[in-house]
Specification:
79 residues; mainly beta; 3-stranded antiparallel sheet
Length: 79
């Protein structure tokens, strides 16, 4: 039995238009269009896409600081 290929979600790094196998035009927008790695536009233009990463995987990303909403026992808050 053949091993299933893994699909990767990709995002466009350049804007362009291409024709799909059924003859329709397809527009790809830089930084906006996300497609699976097996999509015809990706197969025909592999250098125009990169893998999508979440902000948690981005180098240098730190969690935003969350302010405590209420005072701890015995702590005074206010002006």
């Amino acid at each position: 039995m053949a091993k299933a290929t893994e699909r990767t979600l990709l995002i466009a790094t350049t804007s362009f238009w291409t024709s799909l196998p059924d003859g329709t035009s397809f527009v790809v927008l830089d930084g906006r269009t996300m497609l699976w790695s097996d999509h015809p536009a990706v197969r025909d233009n592999p250098g125009s896409f990169k893998p999508v990463t979440s902000s948690y995987e981005t180098p240098g990303y730190t969690e935003p600081r969350i302010e405590q909403a209420t005072a701890a026992p015995g702590e005074k808050r206010g002006a």
